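Researcher: Good morning. I'm working through a list of sequences from a screen, and I'd like to move beyond sequence-only analysis. For each chain I'm collecting a predicted structure so we can compare shapes side by side. This is the next one on the list. No need for commentary yet; just the structure.
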Amino acid sequence: MRIYVYAIARDEEAFAARWMGSMSEADGVYVLDTGSGDGTAAALRDLGAHVVTERVEPWRFDAARNRSLELVPADGDVLVCTDLDEVFCPGWRAALEAAWRPGCTTARYEYVWSFNADGSDGVKFWYEKVHKPGVCRWAHPVHEVLEYAVPKVYCAVPGMRLEHHPDPAKSRGDYLRLLQLAVDESPEDARDRHYLGREYMFRGRWEEAVGTFKAHLSLPGAVWRPERAASMLYIARCLERLGRWEEAELWLLRAAFEAPEQREPLVELAQLMAGQGRWPACERYCRRALDIREQDMTYAAEPDCWGARPWTLLAEACARQGRRDWAASCADMALRMGETDQRRRMEELTRNG
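Model: Good morning. Structure tokens for this chain:
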């Protein structure tokens, strides 16, 4: 089996050696440098990559990725797309070869998008950027995805893990323009509309975010429950920032019903109840969240909902209701999960009643 890696790059000389070491299990590495001002292209070539330098104008990620895909030789059996701020854990090729079957078009594997302060996994989900050649092309100006000309046939790849170690200084300033372009090009595309809402939210444009998320939910193609639940949760967050607490609560309840396998809406509800001093309700939502034991990786799970946060909220809810033994037990659990300030907080609560 011949496995090739392809990528796009710009001004990523600092990552070149780490990335090439991670990709060394492939039979070849092909990179489109889109106009680096540093030594990215030379560093990659020195390490064995095949590099072509071209500008993509006007800039859009799908066009750049499709051009990088064209650099790959025609004799590849499986193609792997990564970015230079990502690294595979060793043994990824053997895991892929063991899982790939005739007829497969796409591999699904673990992707760790962020890490917690203690080095443990943060946000992670399933990724699908490994594919058979000749069956798909990249689409969408940003947050680009592979679109297939044939039915997708997945294979899960246990042991294949890609980690994201980004450059915090890298700008995402062009994302809003590209997402607005994506929505203009495909106004009925639910995914683009959802991502545009997120971008407005990230920029603190709360009213525009709420309107865009509501537009997402109204689209005929908005049928993927985890994404719908995320839009509802994000609407609630924006409404909280606008001081519209009752509306926020209703949207969080909708999110919890939309995706009952997710903790995130329930933990957000518990936090909202705590902020209003509604401790029995806070406790109820914490317990419902903690009853969900398996982390859903179809959408980007939020790590604090699977760590100390629900235990911290539950400890305070129990303490506020005078159940100090339960509060202490929950505080111990939060402490074991990394909440270093929880013991002092519980001591204050029990001392003050």
